[in-house]
Each structure stands twice: as C-alpha cells, then as structure tokens.
C-alpha cells in the first residue's frame, strides 16, 4: 500500500492517470485510493505486477476509460470490470485467462480496443463477439483452433490480430466485416483462403506468413486496397504445387454444359424450377480460348501470376476439363503475361513479403 500511495502521489500531476505499474503488487487495494482520485482517474495502469485477482470494487473507478492489466497472474476478470460503463480500452495480455475467465455481462461493455494476447484461450469467448463497438481485437499467442462465425457481428472492427494460434481455417463470415483493414493470421495452420474474402474491400494488410498455404485463390486480385501481403514460410513460397484433380461430370452437368456452351434457348415455362436454378450456376471457363462452362466438375489448376513485376505467385483457377489448358502453357513465363496480370494496376499489392 505504501508503494501504491507513493506512485499515486507522483501520478497526481498527470491529469486522469493513475500509474501503479511495475510495483510488484500482489493485490490491488481499491480502498487505498481516495474517493476523489477514483472519480478523476481516466487511465489506470496495473501492468507488470503479481496481481492474481482483481476486486469487484474496481467498478468504483466510475469514469475509467483505459485499463491495463498486462503481465500479472490473472485467471479471471471480475464482475466489476463489466460495470465500468465508460471503459473503452482494456489490455489484459500475458496473463492466465481462458474462455471461462470473462464475466457474463462482459459483452455489454462499449469497448473499442481489447487485447487478450498471450493467454490460454482455446476459443474466442462469445462475449467478445457481442462487443459491437469494438474496433481492435487482439488474441494472438493463445491456443485458438478456430474463428467463430459470430465474429461477423463485430461490424466496426478495423484490426483483427490472431497470429500465433492453432487456427486451421478462415471462416467466410470474416468477409462480412466491412471496415476490417488489418488482418493478422500469421503463425497458424491455415491451408487455404476462402474466395469470399474478395468482399473485404477495406483490407489493406493481410499477414499469412508461417502457415500451410500451397496456393492463393485468384479472387485475391479483387482486394483493391490491399497494399501488404505477407506470405513467407508457406509451402507456396518454397515449393510450388500443381495438381490436376477431376471428377467426371454427371449426365445433368453434361446436359447443362451443352445448353450453355451452344446457347440453346430455353424458357422458364419449359423447365422445372430446380433445373433453372442449376443452369444459373454455370461458371465460364477462364481460358480465353475456350467457350466452355462447368458446374460442379472442373479441373483445379495452378496458374502463376506476376503481382508487381517481381513476385510470381500461384493462384488457383478452374478449367472445364483436363483437355482445356491455359494458353501457351508450354512456356513457363507465359502465365505471368496473362489477362489476370494486365488487369492489376501497378499500385496494387505494393508489398508482397515472401522472405
């Protein structure tokens, strides 16, 4: 308590700041702080101590906007934290928190910044997905295996940091975050990128280094504001993979291909509704020399595209049959001169980090 009083007096000159960091505190005595000081404190620093639990009376800091609890021994956040109505930034990294450590009403806070990196979370608590004012969420260096679909509720999110976990897949729901600019998924176990990410029009930086990616979907070229793409430490950087996988088309698909490729006219009154919907799902073969289409059966093909005149990256596209190959495929340099590359302005993907 003497240490607290000494630091409190020193901090009094700093308007609204109570700095109790690095005092080797084993407990936080709220009663040791005057009522006036509690009322005036906007920022509270308790980081780098030995505080194992926080008293519920922390809610007496009624005007608190910023709370740093990093590098303590916390195993739970008390209910009092959920009653800090003015709290906007909570930093509790490098503790012992897990998905059962957050109070039930945590999701009612109006937090804008939440950092829970370096803890023991195996899943993202659903309370976090209810923080509808959140702009920055960091859960790096935990034990996360997945990203819940409910993350799409965080529509104000601008930064999502999930590096250093055990995540194996990117949910397509991430594409429903209209303001996400910085997405960090490095040092995980991700094997593919869902094409839905093409809808993330605000994305400026995508960190995917040290994962298990063997290719990128061609839809990534649609990320018009993407300026930084980090890919080092993925199989696609150290060894390129070409695979030809093909399932023979069904009679239904063969009939649909014939109708579409030969432009055979048909009218809604001629066909059942399910067949009409099926015909609407036809995808045109990306080979400009091929007029074919495909529905479900197609050839997965790797095509190398030059993003910025320096790096040739493998993008995934689909061909209608094994007989349909990319034009001039015998020339290993030709794919870099494809229509994909010419459609990408020079200012796009300014930094592709491979090494």
From TrEMBL:
InterPro entries: Leu-rich_rpt (IPR001611), Leu-rich_rpt_typical-subtyp (IPR003591), LRR_dom_sf (IPR032675), LRR_domain-containing (IPR050216)
Keyword Membrane tagged: no
Cell inner membrane as UniProt keyword: no
Cellular compartments per GO CC: cytoplasm
Alphabetical keyword list: Leucine-rich repeat, Repeat
Database matches in PANTHER family: LEUCINE RICH REPEAT CONTAINING 58, PTHR48051
Name this protein carries in UniProt: Leucine rich repeat containing 58
Organism: Tetraodon nigroviridis (Spotted green pufferfish)
Lineage: Eukaryota, Metazoa, Chordata, Craniata, Vertebrata
């Amino acid at each position: 308590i003497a240490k607290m009083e000494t630091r409190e007096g020193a901090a009094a000159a700093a308007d609204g700041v109570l700095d109790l960091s690095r005092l080797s505190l084993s407990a936080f005595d709220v009663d040791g702080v005057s009522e006036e000081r509690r009322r005036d404190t906007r920022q509270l620093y308790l980081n780098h101590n030995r505080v194992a639990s926080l008293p519920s009376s922390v809610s007496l800091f009624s005007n608190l906007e910023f709370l740093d609890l990093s590098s303590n021994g916390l195993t739970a956040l008390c209910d009092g934290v959920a009653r800090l109505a003015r709290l906007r930034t909570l930093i509790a990294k490098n503790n012992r928190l897990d998905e059962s450590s957050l109070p039930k009403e945590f999701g009612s806070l109006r937090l804008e910044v939440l950092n829970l990196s370096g803890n023991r979370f195996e899943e993202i608590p659903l309370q976090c997905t209810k923080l509808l004012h959140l702009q920055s969420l960091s859960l790096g260096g935990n034990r996360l295996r997945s990203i819940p679909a409910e993350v799409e509720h965080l529509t104000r999110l601008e930064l999502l940091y999930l590096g250093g976990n055990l995540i194996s897949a990117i949910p397509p729901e991430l594409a429903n975050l209209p303001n996400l600019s910085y997405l960090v998924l490095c040092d995980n176990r991700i094997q593919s990128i869902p094409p839905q990410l093409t809808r993330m029009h605000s994305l400026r930086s995508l960190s995917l280094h040290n994962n298990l990616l063997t290719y990128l979907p061609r839809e990534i070229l649609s990320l018009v504001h993407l300026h930084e793409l980090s890919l080092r430490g993925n199989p696609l950087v150290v060894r390129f993979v070409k695979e030809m996988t093909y399932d023979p088309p069904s009679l239904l698909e063969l009939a649909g291909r014939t109708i579409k490729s030969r432009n055979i006219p048909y009218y809604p009154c001629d066909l059942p509704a399910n067949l009409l919907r099926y015909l609407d799902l036809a995808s045109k073969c990306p080979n400009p020399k091929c007029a074919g289409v495909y529905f479900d059966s197609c050839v997965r093909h790797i095509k190398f595209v030059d993003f910025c005149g320096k790096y040739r990256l493998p993008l995934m596209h689909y061909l209608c049959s094994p007989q349909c190959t990319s034009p001039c495929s015998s020339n290993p340099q030709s794919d870099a001169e494809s229509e994909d590359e010419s459609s990408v302005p020079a200012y796009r993907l300014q930094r592709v980090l491979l090494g």
